[in-house]
Amino acid sequence: MIELQKQLSAFVPCCEQEEHDREVICNYLADNPNAFSRSDQIAHMTASAWIVNQNRTKVLMVYHRIYNSWSWTGGHADGETDLLAVALREAREETGITEVRPVSEAIYSLEVLTVDGHEKKGSYVPSHLHLNVTYLLEADDGQELSVCEEENTAVAWFTLKEALKASSEPWFVERIYRKLNAKLKAF
């Protein structure tokens, strides 16, 4: 967790949303030792990936079962404090790609995400927050893709503009995905 705290301190927010969300995440981590476990039903750490091709003209997305929308990949820390490792694991599991690498090991983006109550594996999961760290990953867009039936129903590459149109979650499109695409210009 010390490494993550260093990364959070070094992270340079690109906007007001990231400034506020970094403060929320840092404060929550300082006061809640269970933040890396789903046993914390108020909020817990997650990691996501914005997976781009080598030319950075396409993004790899999954059609998420719970949200019924095209989205980035990602998942719960489940006790792991190396969130880059979590993002890489989830990218592989959710898309079937085998060769994926970080463009940078630094945090790409930060978000505090609301999760509405829902059913998962026959049990109710109450509404809570995901304290999310996003990493920029790169993969060859010629790799074979496969669905992770427990998580999603489809996997596909989209141009950066198509990705914004594909998602049916307006807040994600306006506040997250548009920001992630804009940040690509820095690389």
Topology (SSEs and partners):
Layout: H1 2-10, H2 16-31, E1 43-52, E2 58-64, E3 69-71, E4 73-76, H3 83-95, E5 100-102, E6 109-115, E7 118-120, E8 123-125, E9 128-139, E10 152-159, H4 160-166, H5 170-183
Parallel strand pairs: 1-9
Antiparallel strand pairs: 1-2, 1-4, 2-3, 2-10, 5-9, 6-9, 7-8
Helix pairs in contact: 4-5
Indicate the mean pLDDT.
95
Our measurement of the CA-to-CA distance between the termini, rounded to an integer number of angstroms, reads: 27 Å
Low-confidence stretches: none
Radius of gyration: 15 Å
Q: What is the strand tally?
A: 10
Provide a count of the helices.
5
Q: Give the SSE string.
A: HHEEEEHEEEEEEHH
State the secondary-structure class. Answer: alpha+beta
How much of the sequence lies in strands comes to 25-35%
Helix fraction? 25-40%
Largest sheet: 8 strands, mixed
3D shape:
globular
